[in-house]
Amino acid sequence: MKYYIETYGCQMNVADSELVLSILNEAGYIQADSIDDADILLFNTCSVRDHAEQRVLGRISNERHRKKDKPHFKIVVLGCMAQRIGQRLINEDLGIDYTVGVDQYRALPHILARETGVALDFNSQELYEELLPVHQGSRCAYVTIMRGCNNFCSYCIVPHVRGRERSRPYLDILHDVQNAIGNGMMDITLLGQNVNSYHYRDIEFPQLLKRISQDVPDMLRLRFVTSHPKDLSDALVMEMADNPKLCEHIHLPLQSGNDEILHRMNRNYSYKHYLDRILALRSAIPDISLTTDLIAGFPGESEAQFEDTLAAMREIEYDYAFCFKYSSREGTEAAGFIEQLPEAIRLERLQRMIDLQREITLKKFREQIGKRVEVYVEDFSKKSKSMVSGKTRDYKIAVLSGDGSMIGKLKTAEVIDATAGTLICR
Ligand code: 5AD
Ligand code: SF4
């Protein structure tokens, strides 16, 4: 039997799909090159925003016609949406045959042996121990170090679907990284909802970074995502400054620049605290690039409070910001806040945020012109076979002229031009 998997949402889902590949391959299933070749179509879904859920439902409705020509064709929903509404999805006539929650992937082969099924587990401590994911990236690998989240930001569905935070054993992480390196993926990103609260036995996050760097000397670059501003310790800042494998980039979601909104988001920091962390990072690692997540139109957000976020964006000057329109998620605390803002206001604020960030990103990218940067060459450029592309240490996409022999290697190049998304180098 052949399967094909489509993944939606964040890098955690990409990494989870790689676990699913490992589980299915082990059970004798074969990964198909396209949906046309597949007998089983799996959707690994995201519930963070309503839009993400609607997109997958649209995809499923487009694909269910395949059952007419191929009566044995099966559709499986995995991930956060399965966890959130798995039973509902099966009950409705959507063409879905199985729903399997985020902690039940080991059960997939057993479930697929049945006609239809739902596998959900709501109190799991699952860490998929001793399972080696099949990394799909050609040159960069995402390695999960923890699952779940304890923070309960008031807008966020993640703790409700992914359960409590637990840290993956060190040896599992080490084997995963070594395996990726053995397959030529020299740029490693450690993944978790809140990586800086990693804690396994006596290993905390800064020690984890140090140990991996020491134990895997061939690794070229190490990154991590996502960090929570309230847990960003001085020890982590020092490790970032001292460890040459660690890249000069941090993704540090701010969400809002207004203290009252931050409080109602249950973020547990003030803007002043956040700024203090940014200053600590910038003074220890002068070239560090910063990216963030921001939410426009949180319930009750006034125009003045929204402008505090724009002011924070101007003050900090992120290299890039992922801007989101608030989306009410059933079951979260913020869904119960009375002052939900109209769609038009949320959209308008989102657009202003995006416009401002585009200007700042262009400025930050153009500031790189004339500098020499280290590029980890990952592939040919999409536009031309005589160009290659990759990422700089500070997580910017760079293109330069070159050939296939450069792929997988580090190249130092000069930035000669820049758009708000790409550095053009030579
Ligand atoms: N609405 C809009 N954005 C959200 N995020 C999480 N939940 C919501 C929501 N309900 C954003 C946050 C988070 C990122 C992964 O998604 O900015 O950091
Ligand atoms: Fe959601 Fe907050 Fe946890 Fe991130 S830290 S997953 S935003 S609850």
Structure description:
The chain is of the alpha/beta class and 426 residues long. Among the domains are: 2-119, Methylthiotransferase, N-terminal domain (Rossmann fold), CATH 3.40.50.12160; 372-425, Beta Barrel (OB fold (Dihydrolipoamide Acetyltransferase, E2P)). Helix content is 35%, strand content 23%. It is built from 13 helices and 21 strands. The strands form 6 sheets. It has a 6-stranded parallel beta sheet with strand order 2-1-3-4-5-6, with helices on both faces. It has a 5-stranded mixed β-barrel with strand order 17-18-19-21-20. Strands 7-10-13 form a 3-stranded parallel beta sheet. It starts with a strand and ends with a strand. The relative contact order is 0.08. The model has no long low-confidence stretch (mean pLDDT 97). Iron/sulfur cluster is lined by residues 149, 151-153, 156, 158-159, 193-194, 228.
Structure described in brief:
This protein has 426 residues and is an alpha/beta fold. It has helices spanning 11-26, 50-63, 66-69, 79-91, 108-112, 158-162, 170-182, 205-215, 234-242, 259-264, 271-284, 303-316, 343-366, and strands spanning 2-7, 30-31, 40-45, 74-78, 98-100, 117-119, 140-144, 146-147, 166-167, 187-191, 199-200, 203-204, 221-225, 249-251, 289-296, 320-325, 372-380, 387-392, 397-401, 410-418, 422-425.
